[in-house]
Amino acid sequence: MDQAGSSRESTLVGHLTPDTPYIVMIGDVGTGKSTIVEKLSHEVGRSSKSDLSFTRTSEQFWTYDSSMVISDTPGSNAAQDKLGHNIHIAHALNFNPVWRIMIISKADTRMDNTLDGIRKYAERMLDFPMDLMGALITHMDTVTWSGEDFKSLLEKELGIETVVFSGLDTPREILLEDMKEICVKGVEITIDNENFLKVFKINDSRLKILRCTNREVEDFKKNKAGFDKQRKLFDKENDKVDLIFEFQAYMRREIEAAQRRVAEENDFTFSGEEGANEAGHIANMVNQMRVVLYDVRVAAAEYQSAHGVDQARRCPHCDLVWTKVEGCDGATTCGNRPSTSLDLRDPSFGILATFTFERFSDGIFSILKSGKRNIPKTISTDPSKYYGCGNAIIWNDMPRVELPEEMRAAIPVTMDDNVPVLSDNLPGAQRFMDALAGLLGCGVAIKKPKGKKNKPRKK
Known about the structure:
Blueprint (H helix, E strand, L loop, with lengths): L2 H13 L6 E6 L5 H9 L17 E4 L6 E4 L9 H13 L5 E7 L4 H12 L10 E6 L8 H12 L4 E3 L6 H10 L14 H4 L7 H24 L6 H29 L9 H32 L5 E3 L6 E2 L8 E3 L17 E9 L5 E10 L17 E3 L5 E2 L3 H6 L18 H11 L6 E2 L12
Parallel strand pairs: 1-3, 1-4, 2-14, 4-5, 5-6
Antiparallel strand pairs: 2-3, 7-8, 7-13, 9-12, 10-11
Helix pairs in contact: 4-5, 8-9, 8-10, 9-10
């Protein structure tokens, strides 16, 4: 790039602020992302009829009226250089607070096929705020079904309420207005080497490896199905609570064991030219297992809700926000400590049932209650470690408030699926993750619409 070009782009980046609407478009090769960018920005020469992905980097462009910035990204499923393409998509998500992630899907004769083009991306982005996700359906002039029918299907199947439709003859003004209407407040997204493999699929379709990973996923699903059937045999409430949390821990261990088996069976070293592909196969397997594990998390959440830990109330004296883990709804004091460390959210406390899980070669899943384990209480008696003002309060009379984000993060300690998609216990895995961290440290540039001066949109 010449010196003038570099200076111009630096100036443009300076106009971009966290308050600038910023939309990132992601999707498969050939779904029409670049065509949408050309229509919205007056950029030319980005789309192609080539059989291979034409867009190979992520680039940001002001719309033709300078009201927002949109990011064009390579196809996530490119036949060549999947890792490089998805690194660029990660750069786009890290570039600026994201106001909307639009999953681009090409309209197909069957609505189900169009929906599947969105589903595979949405399921990988479970950790992102749901109201950040949207869909943009291209080639609407080639199908007979209506946008309203698809919108209902999308909301019913995936819970995504935001969708924009575009055809060859859709005026740019209408498309831009539709995009403006679906913008939400920007959210900081960080894609790093810890979550990159959760979000992006970078493996090839080598059948031998896929058979191996598919077998592990099917076994994992059978474990979950067997558990769902066997858990009905336990009728004591305490057993049900302990059972769901212990099974959750068991399933996490099974994910790591499956990673080891696949790596050993296929001689993975996670190095050289094949390193990214090997890591991608492991990640693809684990991501499918995460969807199954999510159902277990939902069951655990039901117990949390039943015991009030998903409710928060504010002290009228000091404004501290509390959640109740034991006791009645009557009088107490702000900052009063629970009488016991037994916590339904954490199976490492109290007196817990111990279960053994096993699936036999004939497919039968077994749950055996093998006893109890006693864990010492660890409640601090040091008043200096207490929080709260100590004033008298009545739980039922305290105003309800929305659960703060920091409290939401602290509560589901046993509900998260914090299993690494690539365990550092696998030989060579840490070396690959370090290299991936380096690749994610690069930046991207923003381009202006041709012939227009870029100005930040006035709020």
